[in-house]
Amino acid sequence: DTWRYAFEEAMDEVQGIFAQKFKEEVEANSDHEIQLFPYGTLGESADIMEQTQAGILQFVDQSPGFTGSLIPEAQVFFVPYLLPAETDELVDFFRNSKAIHEMFPELYAEQGLELLTMFPEGEVAISTKEPFTTPEELDEVKVRVMTNPLLVESYRAFGATPTPLPWGEVYGALQTNIIQGQENPMFYIESTKMYEVTDYVTMIGHNNFTTAVMANKDFFDGLSEEDQQMIRDAIDVAFDHIIEYQQGLHEESIEKIKADKPSVTFTTLTEEQRAPFQEAAADVEAAFIEMTGESGQAILDQMKADLEAAQSN
Ligand code: 6CS
């Protein structure tokens, strides 16, 4: 039979490359077929999640940036400066984290979802119309964020005016100056041409973009053990592929942006300049605990332990 898999990006963007590899593996190792639905073909991120929960879709890639409104604990990925910028350590964390492999699956299961994997999509950069190096310079600057309350807290703590919007509204809102900034990994700033409507790309080192792939749980539970294992194996192959695919992608994307629009200014804040943003992170962590209680505290503690383990590997 044919399984339907929707994701939040285009076919040639990171989630699409992952999905294509997954499809290739599934089709090579079983009689099943996968039909891919890139961003836009079935609606926004929230729509494809609803369709997956309803069993209309079998697989979905939705980032915690959106899932956070459904599973509050998933917002832990937006505690600033929690995830390391360094890739090896980050990949080790995603491969081995108990929070990801043992705790989150239970929370996703409560929403009718089988969590299959989480993977990083790259360091998050902030693209804006005006330059900034301090929280003061973000005063009154409306920065679009994905629709979850903790991201709103983050940008408030960074001194900006956070504006949650679905992805489809971002380009137009920047063009009409309803917002003056947004955050995303460099490949996405390049591929979606965010640099056409913003002139400064700033890296404050506050996060790496996490995404997640899951299946409708009733569908997954109803499969044979053999098919379940085949799916898990295909996910593992796609995970390795997407990590390798992203080698050098950040830098290549910067080069492409520069080639298309030489006036774009790229700035990486120094340790000193980052300090006030880093200090703001404590408030965001407190807000996370307030929103999620004991369950969130347990996830956060486990994440920190997992990150420490990844660091020493
Ligand atoms: O900012 C967003 O909404 C989008 N960013 C990425 C990198 N992927 C999908 C998501 O919709």
- What would you report as the Rg, rounded to the nearest angstrom? 19 Å
Shape: globular
Give the SSE order as H and E letters: EHEHEHHHEEHEHEHEEHHHEH
- CATH architecture field: 3-Layer(aba) Sandwich
Q: Can you put this structure into words, describing what you see?
A:
Strand 5 (142-145), helix 6 and strand 6 form a beta-alpha-beta unit. It contains twelve helices and ten strands. Strands 1, 2, 3, 4, 5, 6, 7, 8, 9 and 10 form a ten-stranded mixed beta sheet that branches. It has a single domain, classed as Bacterial extracellular solute-binding protein, family 7 (D-Maltodextrin-Binding Protein, domain 2). Helix 4 packs across helix 12, helix 5 crosses helix 12 (271-312) and helix 6 (149-157) crosses helix 12. The longest helix is centred in the C-terminal third of the chain and has 42 residues, at 271-312. The mean pLDDT is 97. It has 313 residues and is α/β, with parallel strands linked by helices. Ligand 6CS is lined by residues 8-9, 45, 63, 121, 146, 167, 184-185, 188, 209.
Tag the structure with descriptive keywords.
313 residues; alpha/beta; D-Maltodextrin-Binding Protein, domain 2; ten-stranded mixed beta sheet; 12 helices; 19% strand; globular; binds ligand 6CS
In short:
This protein has 313 residues and is an alpha/beta fold. The chain contains 12 helices and 10 strands. Strands 1, 2, 3, 4, 5, 6, 7, 8, 9 and 10 form a 10-stranded mixed beta sheet that branches.
